[in-house]
Amino acid sequence: MLTAEEQALLGNAVVIRLRLAQVQPREWSESDYSRPDPKRHRGSEDGPPSVQSWPGSDEGARVWGGPVPEVVGTSSVASRDAPMITPDENMSSAGGGSLGSPGIEPHGAFAGVFMATTVLDEQMRAPEQPATYVPPTYAAGPQPGATAPASPAPRDQTLDEEMKAEVPGANDMGMARLAEEQATSHQALQDAQRQIAELQMAMAARDEQERIRIQEYQRTLQAQTAERDLNRAERKQQKTLTRKQEVEAARRKEAANIEIASLHLRLHQVEEQQAREQDAVRREAAEAIARDADRLRAEAAAAVEAAAERARQEEAQAKRALQHQLQEERARPALEQERLDAQEAELRSLHEQVAAVAERSRARERSTSAGSTDRAGATRQRRP
User: Fold this and answer.
1) Domain assignments of the chain as residue spans, ordered by start
2) At what angle do helices 170-382 and 155-166 cross, to 10 degrees?
3) Is 165 a residue whose pLDDT tops 60?
4) Which candidate, 188, 168, 190, places its Cα nearest to that of 180?
5) Where is this region: Disordered (predicted)?
6) What angle do CA 291, 295, 297 make, to 5 degrees?
7) Which of 36, 105, 226, 272 is the most buried (most CB within 10 A)?
8) Entry pTM
9) What does the H/E/C string look like for 161-186?
């Protein structure tokens, strides 16, 4: 499917072609007649001999009558993504469309439709022959080369033509304006053709990218097919190897079962031997325990005797300590009295020492105060 940019480019090209294809009655009168007819009025049947054809178009390829086609530009691709441009989407908004531009009669418009078909192979089909579409206002379906029906001239246009007929040199001015408009139309046509060529190049590049993508997909599919065949051979080889491994595993399992059975027999024999040895050990242990019990009973009796002896000795020692403590308690008041007497004597000696020290301090203070008084009197006497 075309991108938004490509669709916009195609729509602009078609709109430009439609605008250039719209022919005014004034242009017919100036291009087909040497002088305008001042007596021509609205509704007269003498009009231009034929509708101007698009440069490079086939006059015999015109389509007369019928409704305006919905698809103005289209291209089909193998992927079935066909962009579609309608007059409502691309022409009416730009001032064109089925109604034409302001001041231009809608029945004087025709469109050159290009239909290009692209395929995914390495070739690209050439664009088909363009066909010119004429709106249904040209009824009666004239054959190729027939004259088109005349369009009614507006009143303003008739007055303008009458004034130009009276003013000298008006025809020359009209021809100059017509030449300028033709040059502008030719430039616009070249721009439209250039845009169409760019669009065709973009579509060709898109088709080339699509072809490359399909080729890459085919190469990938071929690689996947080869890989699938290789995987099939590998799976077959893997199955054969698995069967061999299963047979080998069955053989190893059978040998292991035989070895396990022999080991079970050996284990049973070892267990019986261990049971006999354990019975002998238990008997020996019971005899040793009985001997140890007799020895422990004898040792316990001896220990009881020794404990009784120690208890008697400790009891005698406790009695002696109690007697000594009673004696100390009886002698304790006398000892306390002696200690109190000694403390009182010590306190009295301390009081005496404190009194002597205080007396000496007072004597020293008195002598110090007397000396300071004498020094003060001597100082007063020495002063004049």
Assistant:
1) 4-231
2) 110
3) no
4) 188
5) 24-68, 81-101, 136-157, 310-339, 351-384
6) 115
7) 36
8) 0.22
9) HHHHHHCCCHHHHHHHHHHHHHHHHH
